[in-house]
Amino acid sequence: MTPTRTRPRGRALALLGVAAGLTGLVAAPPGASPSTAVALSAAPAAAVAENTATVHYWTKTKNWSAYNLHYAPDGGTWTTVPGTAMEAACTDWVKKTVSLGSAAGLQATFNNGTGTWDNNGGRNYALGTGNITVKDGVVAHSDPCADTPPPAANKATVYYSSASLGWSTVNVHYRPAGGAWTTVPGLGMTAACTGWWKRELDLGTATSLKAAFNNGNGVWDNNGGSDYTIGTGTSTVRDRVVTANASDPCAATPPDTQAPTAPAGVTATADGVSVLLSWNAATDDRGVTKYQVTRVGGSTGTVVTDVGSTVFSDTNLAERTAYTYTVKAVDAAGNVSAASAPASATTGDRPTAPANGKPLGTDPRKDPIYFVLTARFHDGDPSNNRGGSQHVKSGNAANDDPMFRGDFKGLIQKLDYIKGLGFSAVWVTPVVLNRSDYDYHGYHGYDFYKVDPRLESAGASYQDLIDAAHAKGMKIYQDVVYNHSSRWGAKGLFTPTVYGVRDTQWSWYYDEKQPGFEYDGLTIDTKTGKSYYNGDLWSTAEPAGNTCVNWGKPTGGKSAEGYTVYNCQWPSPTSGMFPKELYHPCWIGNWEGEDSRSCWLHEDLADFNTENATVQNHLIGAYNKYIDMGVDGFRVDTAVHIPRTTWNRRFLPAIQERVTQRHGAEAAKNFFVFGEVAAFVNDKWNRGSVNHSAQFFTWKERKEYDADDARAALEMYDYEQQQGTGNQPTSTNAFLNGNSYHAPDHSRFSGMNVIDMRMHMNFGDASNAFSNGKDSDDSYNDATYNVVYVDSHDYGPNKSSERYTGGTDAWAENMSLMWTFRGIPTLYYGSEIEFQKGQKIDCGPSCPLATTGRAYYGAHLAGTVTASDFSKVSEASGQVATTLQQPLVKHVQRLNEIRRAVPALQMGQYSTEGISGGMAFKRRYTSGSTDSFALVTVSGGATYSGIPNGTYTDAVTGDVRTVTGGTLTVGAPGKGNLRVYVLNGPGKIGTAGPYLK
Description:
The chain is of the alpha+beta class and about 1000 residues long. The chain has 15 helices and 52 strands. Helix 6 (about 615-630) packs parallel to helix 7 (about 645-665) and helix 7 crosses helix 9 (about 710-725).
């Protein structure tokens, strides 16, 4: 087990630096020492003449970067290692004049300050007084620099950016390599231009320096305690990044007069009374900032719309009307490109589908999340159940348990069950049409523009689910996949043609092509009686331009059934079946390497080339559809396998733009995007790789990269890996300032929050999860938005392949922590009754689903249930009534009640400062007239010191405490129980249960 680590929080003096993302700003400055009062003694009656020696040392042979003289006057003591720095004398010579007192000579050695010595072969040098030279071991008495001007000293011009700090004064405290530090606080720097300070520094013969910066009032930036290493010439220091041989950041930027190139590849496709427009990204010497889409046609005349991405959905147009579009690119200087070639489309009839919904648009931290595999939750319509090609082989047929069993109708019917538990957000697995041999989970997307018909029913479409949830005050978070499609590609983008002969071995599997029949996962092909039709995929004729080697020839191998296997029979990244511009042509070799972001994860997951504009447009256009339907957020699958630059440049801005366009700025602000960055390690950073760590994806980029997305991804990867874990931005957004809430700074937020993988990995023990969570929180942009769960449809804690089986008491303790600590508590369906505990979560079609952690839950929901409010069940009958009586159900209901009543537990920052105890902390949230302050301890007792005086009431027991001396002591409530003392609180919330009592 990895030991837990705790990190002390900084005091008030550190707040400015930490808020700016620079750790270590208040560490003791290098070279600093306390002031020393020097006592003056009376001078002797007569001064004694001192002997001196000026030692010259030859540098050309050694060619060290620094030179030190370590010596002892005859009969005296040696200087402290490495001695005293020598200074430039003239070409190829350095010198140092030293006082010998009454001694007539000295013993000497020389060194470079880093462990390399010249001690005269172990004998030391015996030197006299006056001018002395030491050259290649030979001692002489002369001044080699007589009549020779000293060489020019090396210089360093340093620019320092205080833009993220707000300092009004900047000092540089430094020492040349091998030299001494300046006196604290160092040399004042001069304002050079907005946000930049400048100072030219003399280095003597040194070729580099160590430096730290301060504001003259005790606040330091010493590079997290490592100091900055800066070379000669011009360097810049900005947000803890040193750029050598830099250009002058204050030099005037020449005006931008060059317009972008005209957008190419414009296509327009009509869908009802909407037109989806996409185009290839334009290029510009300084970057394109937006596009202008001009529409002509219909009765509205010419309409110009500004767009931030390379896809635009024009909606609510006139029926059966021709429209023509052109696109121009615009850069930051306002230069406008020539218009693109026109693209036209003619609308059809207005669809009769239900009106689009609208997201609830409230702070997502208020909403605990219930996560369901829709196809395994509750079956409302047996007519859309489908078993697929693996129905018998998997053992599902023997259990009468088709993989596609649950549906939206069943979920709508049981929304009151979820609401009765107290959850106000439902995370559903991907809804797009899937295509593979075993695709009930939704992660094998085929038609990203179509909802899978196996989930829908008459009166229970996906839109109906969204609207039904919203009517109950509940949100829908849709699981989305940008990284990959099914192995059969993506309809409308690219689908591979593969070899398939209908011989006596394979005719059972290869369907004959049926003209006019189209796969939708649901419709039964009357000729074969199958819903998993594949006649459109197979061909015995090699497609034009195919590069798959030995098309249709036997490989020499056999399938599991003993059938002959042919070349190009199954899609793979290296077979040449997929165009490289749309799909990546490789398998992942290193899961913490660059290839994990640009290669296939699995044979069923064809990896999109997400840096290609055509792919980006296809996905943006698809997910715009679901934004328009009113979903409240996206859970992003396999987020780590797409470069952060692509998220930050393309997908995240496109989401924000579309939500803003359709539903307004407030809805966009609260549209919740949380990514799965699967880092299955117990460390703060994933095996030291920042690019593969969850918190990395919560930040914007720190510098500009190539305009080409593929090159930019590589540049960013290399740059951030070189910067390492110690040079990443930090944040105080999750932390209290003493007892005070402070406005969070989200100016560098990427737009993506994340699942808290580190807490997930450590939830085998709640205390361990708590310690690990705290240790990472300064590296997220805002950890109060982290999605926190114990187990999921993939893994349990410690990367266990089984559903959590730590016991009911441990579950209760985990929940008590999740519902009161920072982040958004999330529960995988059925965990409220320890459903399938200890069962293998997923074994594919090699075992029945009924024996796994993805088993069908509907039997536990049979009957009726009505929720009068969150955590309040007004009526229940049948098996669901029994389910609702289980101890963890009662526990989570009351936890949701308490959390919903105390804003500090939803959105508050936290601190453990001044608190003794195990899982104990204080939280506060302040906004307008709301000021919520809570003291929490889970399982164990705690003492809180330095807290505001006043009346505190425990939300669990109703116990009232009056604090007059800033201290409150709370006894241990017991495992799984907790205490929540709220300043001026509402009193006891809910009724005592099996754990909260």
